[in-house]
Task: inverse folding
């Protein structure tokens, strides 16, 4: 199996398109998954605020005419599907991540807002770096669940993991 989690649109597409590089939650949902690859399930609901993420993209220098393209799922992918894989990095409290910025807390919050594609007031309290994002060749229908849940690797088109090496006794 492989860990899986759901995200609302447009954030799932922004993450898989490499715009969003940090995922925040109000809990330690990703604790214990650092260094692991997880499947990304596209939730069926949209994030209720359509303006905040657009503001962040504009502030990052991304023209308004590109926003919808970056936030859209490619042809053949839809809500209710696992659409990509991500490598989960460390999880730190958002405030700690921002205040440890080399240029100070103000610059740290700005950098975190850009990475999360959300304002400080809209982001979660725990921030997890997300790396190595990649789209699957095709979306795979999976029922979403709260938190991190497990899906069969074969169900999302991945080979089973190689068995661990067995030590020979001489």
Result:
């Amino acid at each position: 199996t492989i860990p899986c989690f759901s995200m609302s649109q447009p954030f799932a597409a922004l993450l898989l398109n490499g715009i969003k590089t940090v995922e925040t939650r109000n809990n330690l949902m990703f604790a214990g998954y650092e260094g692991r690859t997880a499947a990304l399930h596209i939730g069926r609901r949209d994030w209720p605020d359509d303006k905040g993420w657009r503001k962040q993209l504009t502030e990052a220098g991304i023209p308004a005419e590109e926003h919808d393209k970056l936030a859209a799922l490619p042809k053949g992918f839809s809500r209710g599907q696992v659409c990509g894989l991500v490598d989960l990095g460390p999880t730190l409290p958002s405030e700690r991540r921002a205040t440890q910025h080399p240029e100070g807390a103000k610059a740290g919050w700005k950098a975190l807002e850009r990475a999360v594609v959300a304002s400080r007031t809209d982001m979660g309290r725990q921030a997890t770096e997300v790396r190595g994002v990649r789209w699957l060749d095709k979306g795979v229908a999976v029922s979403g669940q709260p938190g991190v849940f497990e899906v069969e690797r074969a169900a999302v088109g991945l080979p089973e993991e190689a068995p661990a090496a067995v030590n020979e006794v001489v």
Q: What stands out?
A: Helices lie at 11-16, 52-59, 64-71, 94-99, 105-116. Residues 162-170 have pLDDT under 50 and may be disordered.
